[in-house]
Amino acid sequence: MGGSMDTEDPFRIRRRGLMLVLSSPSGAGKTSISRAILDSDPEVELSVSVTTRPKRPGEVHGRDYYFVDKSAFDLMVNRGELLESAKVFDHYYGTPRGPVEEALDRGHDVLFDIDWQGTQQLAEKAEDDLVRVFILPPSTVELEKRLKKRAQDPADVVARRMAKASDEMSHYPEYDWVIVNRSLDDAIAQVRAILTSERLRRRRQIGLSEFVKGLRSGV
Q: What is the DSSP string of 114-181?
């Protein structure tokens, strides 16, 4: 049994990667969950988006985002180099196509921290590769508390994010999985469980048919 999955085995099963989308209103916890998944699972890599918004303190170009001006962003759109793009809070965001497709072919999963607009665009182009998870806060009071505690944005921006949260949360039916983030540890565990389940889907196991044929023939 031990040799059935060896790299020399002609019936070896390999896996196609998946696109794991985490969406939520700002402050609901998707960034913290994303970091935990990335830190603990070497088969998951972050989709680094391009954006026209300014860098926040501590952010690094090429690691957190590719920071570009509007002209460069428009050029990428026109060349078809983005899987999705959206305008959020007066700034533009998009996902470069090349690195995502290369990772999926290698059997690595790509994690996306994008909103419902971007998720809809991904679904139009790569439905079979997509796993959509929406993160809800336990209450609007807790959501506002988390936004204020984050201390990254001025009060008027926090107010705008709260006003937009209701519309964002209305899109939860468009997602495959929904998690209420009452406890960060529990939410992380739930996303990990989803990831494990989705990796085992039959359509993502390349070579499975040949593997089963080998089993049936006594190999």
A: --HHHHHHHHHHHGGGEEEEEEE-S-HHHHHHHHHHH--S-HHHHHHHHHHHHHHHTTGGGSSEEEE-
Least Cα distance to 111 among 219, 176, 20, 50 occurs for 20
For the cut 50, the answer to whether the pLDDT of residue 6 exceeds it is no
**Cα 87 to Cα 28, 56, 67, 91, distances in angstroms:** 20, 18, 14, 5
Judged against a pLDDT cut of 80, whether residue 180 lies above it is answered with: yes
CA angle in degrees (0–180, nearest 5) for 55-61-65 = 75
DSSP state at residue 53 = S
Domain boundaries, the chain: 17-199
Tokens coding 193: 């469980």
Residue 59's pLDDT is what? 94
Q: What is the pTM of this model?
A: 0.80
Under a CB-based contact definition with an 8 Å cutoff, are residues 25 and 168 in contact?
yes
Residue 104: the pLDDT is: 96
- 135 Cβ contact partners less than 8 Å away, ≥ 6 residues apart: 22, 23, 24, 28, 29, 30, 33, 179, 181, 187
**Nearest residue to 87 via CA among 101, 102, 77, 98:** 77
- pLDDT 10s digits, 12-54: 899 999 999 999 988 888 989 999 999 999 999 999 999 999 9
> What superfamily would CATH give domain 17-199?
P-loop containing nucleotide triphosphate hydrolases (3.40.50.300)
Question: Alpha-carbon distance 62 to 46, whole Å?
Answer: 11
* One-letter identity of residue 69: D
